[in-house]
Amino acid sequence: MKSIFTKPFTQQEAIDEATIERVSELLRGGRLHRYNTLEGEISEAALLEKEYAAYQEARYCLACSSGGYALAVALRAAGLSPGDTVLANAYTLAPVPGAIHNAGGVPLFVEIDDAWHIDIDDLQHKAEASGARFLMLSHMRGHIADMERIVAICKTHQITMIEDCAHTMGARWSGVRSGNFGHVAAFSAQTYKHINSGEGGLLTTDDPVIAARAIIMSGSYMLYQSHGAAPDESVFAQVKLETPNYSGRMDNMRATILRGQLQNLDDNVRRWNERYKVLETRLSRSSAIDVTNRRQNEEFVGSSIQFRPRLAVSGFEPLISNCLARGVDIKWFGAEHPRAFTSRYDSWRYLGKPQALPQTLEVLSRTCDIRVPLTFDLADCRLVADIVAEEVEALQGDFAMTQQGDLESPSKPKSQN
Ligand SMILES: *Cc1c(COP(=O)(O)O)cnc(C)c1O
Fold this sequence. Notes:
This protein is α/β, with parallel strands linked by helices. The chain has 2 domains: 17-262, Type I PLP-dependent aspartate aminotransferase-like (Major domain) (Aspartate Aminotransferase, domain 2); 265-395, Aspartate Aminotransferase, domain 1 (Alpha-Beta Complex). 37% of the residues lie in helices and 13% in strands. It contains 14 helices and 14 strands. The strands form 3 sheets. The chain has a 7-stranded mixed sheet with strand order 1-9-8-5-4-2-3, with helices on both faces. It has a 4-stranded antiparallel sheet with strand order 10-12-14-13, with helices on one face. Helix 4 links the parallel strand 2 and strand 3 (106-110). Helix 3 (67-77) crosses helix 7, helix 10 runs parallel beside helix 13 and helix 11 (316-325) crosses helix 13 (378-395). The longest helix has 21 residues, at 265-285. It is globular. The two termini are 30 Å apart. The model is unreliable at 405-417 (pLDDT under 50). Bound molecules: pyridoxal-5'-phosphate. Pyridoxal-5'-phosphate binds at residues 66-68, 92-93, 95-96, 138, 140, 164, 166-167, 188, 190, 193, 201.
């Protein structure tokens, strides 16, 4: 009998009782709006901003309605004008191209390398050739590219970098928090991210003008002084009448939930990484699966794992369905039509004629992805990895790998389809 995995891949942990109690108190008080405070009271949203700025080691923080909203506001606050080109990874999640489009920018996609980072050579080339003034860098699935090189490219070409840290909240590169390399960073608190209030976003920056503009844009009704990590009045005086209100505030209930979770974030990062390690160890033990070694500079958060089965691309559909039949939900980015999520640039037709990024398509055609919820224990992770390894190995005979994969590992015997 084949073993079956029965836990859902979409179940998050419960909100802790102390937080539920604090939310109940807030509900009893009825002051849900962030600017609805009693004399001398500091709102939960403002406290969250103060605490997240401290956690992130950033000067300013704005709590807002979603990660995608934070990205769009970041671009606008950083001075994007309609029609401006924005360099962006070709592999990211739909809120990213959506935010660029929303802010009036035009994405110019950059290839990814075979470990899912932005391809730095292609970035360099496109930065030079396009004269773009913005880079929206997604640390997609938590893989952090060589930030020293990216910062250098941005400096040379006077590019403003916005970091999409939806998958790197809590991560570091060379000891520096992900999000502190660019001019401004955006984080998401949507249910499947590292903190969960259902929906929510955080924007951080060290730039006072960007911070003031973002706060006014989020819909501050000129009550910006009650924010938790905002610049001085003098900065607002420069921008407040020149900046529109694009309402997207965070409410006090979500802020209360997030404040509770922020206290556990570092502990949860450790728990994610324990689970990741179990999956990584077991998957890489199979000669049928390639798992990328993470780089030394990277302190990542293993809230998902990516791997490449050594199968012909035609073997991926059967692999996904065989694993699903045993309860293991693998995402595959190579499918012709997006299922439940879109992460491939050719799914975003509203952007006009698809750009050609053959390297990205090649990498994604062999990329599998598993989400790692904290509701899985270590034994669950072992079982998930066992099932995946068994199913890949079972398909290797019928779907032997050809082409590129063989080049990566010349020691393995070549086989023909
Ligand atoms: C979740 C996510 C976002 C932001 O998503 P929202 O749903 O708008 O909070 C941005 N980028 C990536 C890569 C994401 O996964």
